[in-house]
């Protein structure tokens, strides 16, 4: 998956140049020209890295960095003309991964961004036969407990069965027929096509939201548990 980089820079020419250079390295880039735009963009999209200037038209990049670090795990790299020692130290104190001063060498910048992105690569979500967790959604099949973003979920036994089958086969298509066979319990409580569809819809409504999708429908076949934060 291509990494997505947000560039917060009010110099339009420099911003366009950075976007072009990074796109040639196969990154996806987006530009914001002030603090307000950056906050709005980050609220509606997910980024793997933020390149941030200190002097912005409507505020300080330092304050914006503090906001980003409080709300997101996205790494921040300062790219700025502010080269005073106290500025550099302040940037690192706020949690920046690196502090690069202008003028800069584009090849060195590229290499530094590679290092930051590699260092901050998210590990695959932890999952096993007894549970699943990606930090946002946590499922314990032994305790029949599920938590989404710190909130306890009420999930039915059949929904847990569906989740366990899907997570055990994460990344692979689980056919509707297989689910129907697995959901036929020892008491022969029959689960039909309609009931399966209803259970799947309710389960999705409980564990998913606009920013977190876990179950993908493969029309005409079945479902895939992606277990991926979008």
From TrEMBL:
Which residue numbers delimit the OmpR/PhoB-type domain? 127-227
State any GO CC term. protein-DNA complex
**Which InterPro entries does UniProt cross-reference here?**
CheY-like_superfamily (IPR011006), OmpR/PhoB-type_DNA-bd (IPR001867), Sig_transdc_resp-reg_receiver (IPR001789), WalR-like (IPR039420), WH-like_DNA-bd_sf (IPR036388)
Q: Report the domain of life of the source organism.
A: Bacteria
GO biological-process terms attached to the record: regulation of DNA-templated transcription
**Keywords, ordered alphabetically:** DNA-binding, Phosphoprotein, Transcription, Transcription regulation
List 4-aspartylphosphate occurrences by residue: 53
Q: Which GO terms describe its molecular function?
A: phosphorelay response regulator activity; transcription cis-regulatory region binding
Q: What residue ranges does this record give for the DNA-binding region?
A: 127-227
Annotated ranges, domain Response regulatory:
4-117
Q: What does this protein do?
A: May play the central regulatory role in sporulation. It may be an element of the effector pathway responsible for the activation of sporulation genes in response to nutritional stress. Spo0A may act in concert with spo0H (a sigma factor) to control the expression of some genes that are critical to the sporulation process.
Q: What is this protein called?
A: Stage 0 sporulation protein A homolog
């Amino acid at each position: 998956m291509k990494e997505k980089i947000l560039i917060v820079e009010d110099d339009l020419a420099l911003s366009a140049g950075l976007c072009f250079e990074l796109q040639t390295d196969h990154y996806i880039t987006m530009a914001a020209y002030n603090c307000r735009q950056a906050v709005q963009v980050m609220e509606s999209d997910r980024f793997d890295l933020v390149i941030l200037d200190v002097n912005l038209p409507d505020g300080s990049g330092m304050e914006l960095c503090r906001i980003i670090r409080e709300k997101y795990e996205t790494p921040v790299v300062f790219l700025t003309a502010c080269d005073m020692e106290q500025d550099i130290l302040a940037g690192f104190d706020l949690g920046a991964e690196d502090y690069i001063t202008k003028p800069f060498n584009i090849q060195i910048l590229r290499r530094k961004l590679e290092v930051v992105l590699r260092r901050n690569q998210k590990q695959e979500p932890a999952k096993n036969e007894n549970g699943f967790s990606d930090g946002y959604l946590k499922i314990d099949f032994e305790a029949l407990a599920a938590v989404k973003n710190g909130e306890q979920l009420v999930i039915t036994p059949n929904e847990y069965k569906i989740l366990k089958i899907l997570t055990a086969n994460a990344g692979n298509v689980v056919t509707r027929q297989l689910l129907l066979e697995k959901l036929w319990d020892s008491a022969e409580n029959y689960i039909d096509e309609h009931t399966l569809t209803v259970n799947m819809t309710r389960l999705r409504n409980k564990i998913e939201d606009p920013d977190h999708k876990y179950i993908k429908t493969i029309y005409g076949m079945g479902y895939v548990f992606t277990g991926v934060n979008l």
